[in-house]
Structures are given as structure tokens and as C-alpha cells.
Design goal:
alpha+beta; about 160 residues; 2 domains; single chain; four-stranded antiparallel β-sheet; 7 strands; elongated
Length: about 160
Amino acid sequence: MKERIWERKKAHVTALDVDRWGVIFAGLGAEGKVVSVDRQRLERTLLDLDERQVLALIADQGMEFVGTGDAGAAYQLGAARPAEAFYLSPPLDAGSIAVMAVTLALFVAALFTKGLTHDLLLEAGVFLVSVKLMIMAYKNSQQQIRAQKSLDEILRRLPAEK
């Protein structure tokens, strides 16, 4: 006899384990998530990782270890709450600075090679769109920093676990 315990239509399970209390842990291959399904068949998302493929997991006394693909990483999970919250993305990385520099250099080169023609207006449009995207990315990074500070403050105010 077979019985469907849990289902998610737009995902595939790439890792599966059961802890000593009968809680099922499923690693999802395309979403980078780990979900748990308890004896009452209640689903909870435990992890939503930056890596998109959860390929391995170990559960004995709850979720303990997770291994990922596409950007290989291994995570050890503990029952205690972390000392601080963090966000992995830097606000202004070397790639963003390089894109800004190359975009400006190409616009200046187009200005000198094409002169003041109709094509220059097209180049100016491309340049302005690029600048707008960079400004939006910078504002987004500043919002991430503010959100990080808020998370840290919330974490600081939570009572310490014993």
C-alpha cells in the first residue's frame, strides 16, 4: 500500500531524511529550500538558501546538515539561535564598480567617435538607463543595510536562549 504524505507541484525532491521523531525533511532541487513535514502533515520551510540545489541532508535530532550544489556549500545547523543575523550580499562590489567604469568609458568613446549626431542621442539613452540601473542597485544596497540593522536590533532584543 502506498500513501502520498506530501506534495509540491513545482519542485522536485533531491534529498530526503527522517529524524527520530518521525519528522520528514525534504531538500528541494530547484528552489534551494528545505521543508519539514511533521506527523500531522504540517509543512514548514526551514531553509531558503542562496544556492538553488539542496542535494544532501542529515537529520537525526532535527535538521543537522545540508549540502548544496550549483554553488557547492555545506551548512551545519544548530538548535540555538545565532548570535547575529547577517546578509551575504555586499552593497557595492567590484563587479558593480567595473560595470560603471566600462559604461562611462564606452559613452565617452562614443561621444568622441560619433560626435554630436543622432547616434549620440541613442548612446546617451543607453548611458542614462545604465546610470538609472546603477542608482537603483545602490539604493537597494542601502535598503539591505537598513534591513540588516533592523534584523540585528530585533535579534538583540530577543531573550537569550539557555
